[in-house]
Specification:
The protein is an alpha+beta fold. It folds into 2 domains: 2-222, tt1808, chain A; 224-354. It contains 6 helices and 14 strands. It has helices spanning 36-39, 43-47, 51-67, 137-142, 144-151, 224-346, and strands at residues 2-8, 11-17, 20-21, 73-76, 80-82, 96-103, 114-116, 127-131, 155-159, 174-180, 183-186, 195-197, 202-207, 210-215. The strands form 4 sheets. Strands 3, 4, 6, 8, 9, 10 and 11 form a 7-stranded mixed sheet that branches. Strands 12-13-14 form a 3-stranded antiparallel sheet, with helices on one face. It has a two-stranded antiparallel ribbon with strand order 1-2. The N and C termini lie far apart (187 Å). Mean pLDDT is 87; it is low at 1-14.
């Protein structure tokens, strides 16, 4: 037994699977033996297959090959699988079969006419898929489960991509059986119509023409082409995101430069405004000082004018007093003269003749 590790969506899951290396020919001392149906077509071969069957078979093979690429397990399509060493033994020919733990060196350069389970290192596949058609669906549905059980296949899945499907009247496309105590037991899908495969550790999900597989992490299994396309898309998205980030960084840097320039201009304008304000304040101070000087000059002028007015009033008062004194003196002289003249007249002297 060889312990292998499965990597799925970043999670490592320990698996213990017996690994068999299959040689070109089995070791046997018997005479060369060939099966009849390795040389002549089986009944199913004569029926042929539709384009939709071929498409789905190729898809499932590519899906399984890519998913198990780290192991190199043998995955076959339309391979005759024999149970007995009999010339006319009727083979099982699953559309797709997964042989877990079986490694066939240089499988792409080899052609297997059949797979003989009665020979050493030729175990049956653990999982088999049949894609039904209008000519095969009844056998696929009614006879194949028992035959796969006889071969020891652990899981058998039947998918109907036809529209409408042949295997049901309610639109169901997927059926599955698991081997329990030598008997194939039908499996019930969940509410969404999905089936769980313990051997694949995956959900089988109907999708019209296709049967999809999803891991327990919810990630859909991809083919090599899909994985490469997804990687290319992710690379393109990362490049686009990097471009967007670079553009955003450039825009941010430009915006920051513009902001710094605007801030410098604002600071310069503020400085100029402050200088103008200082000049205005200085002019206002000068104006205030001039106003104060003008006010002081006006006060001094008013005081001088007041003094001049007082002086003028005093002078006028002096002049009035002088006039009054002069008038009193003149009056006194007149009274004195009249008194003197009156005295002279009393004395008989005419004062006018003096």
């Amino acid at each position: 037994m060889v312990a292998q590790t499965r990597i799925a969506s970043g999670k490592a899951v320990a698996m213990t699977v017996e690994t068999l290396i299959v040689a070109d020919e089995p070791e046997t001392t018997d005479e060369p033996f060939s099966h009849f149906y390795d040389e002549y077509p089986t009944t199913e071969d004569l029926m042929g297959s539709s384009a939709i069957q071929g498409q789905l078979v190729r898809y499932l093979v590519s899906l399984l090959e890519w998913h198990y690429r780290a192991y190199g397990w043998f995955i076959a399509a339309d391979l005759n699988i024999y149970l007995r060493k009999e010339r006319h033994d009727n083979p099982l020919v699953p559309d797709v079969a997964l042989f877990k733990g079986v490694i066939v060196p240089n499988v792409s350069k080899r052609t297997f006419r059949s797979w003989r389970t009665y020979e050493p290192k030729r175990p049956p596949p653990q999982v088999a898929f049949e894609i039904c058609s209008d000519t095969t669906w009844e056998k696929d549905l009614k006879e194949k489960p028992g035959r796969y059980a006889a071969f020891g296949v652990q899981e058998y899945y039947l998918y109907d991509p036809n529209d409408p499907p042949y295997i049901s009247d309610n639109g169901e496309r997927l059926r599955g059986w698991h081997l329990v105590d030598g008997v194939m037991v039908p499996q019930q899908p969940n509410a969404k119509g999905h089936l769980w495969s313990p051997e694949l550790e995956a959900w089988l999900v109907p999708d019209d023409d296709f049967l999809r597989l999803y891991g327990d992490d919810g990630q859909r299994w991809l083919t090599a082409a899909e994985a490469q396309a997804q990687q290319a898309l992710e690379a393109a998205q990362q490049a686009l995101e990097a471009t967007k980030q670079a553009q955003a960084a450039a825009k941010l840097a430009k915006a920051e430069r513009a902001a710094k320039q605007a801030e410098a201009q604002r600071a310069e304008a503020e400085a100029q405004r402050a200088e103008a304000e200082a000049q205005r304040a200085e002019a206002e101070a000068q104006r205030a000082e001039a106003e104060a000087q003008r006010a002081e000059a006006e006060r001094v002028a008013r005081e001088a004018e007041a003094r001049r007015a007082r002086n003028a009033e005093q002078q006028a008062e002096a002049e009035r007093a002088a006039r009054e004194a002069e008038a009193q003196r003149a009056e006194t002289e007149r009274v004195a003269k009249e008194a003197a003249w009156a005295k002279l007249r009393e004395l008989g002297i005419d004062p006018e003749k003096l």
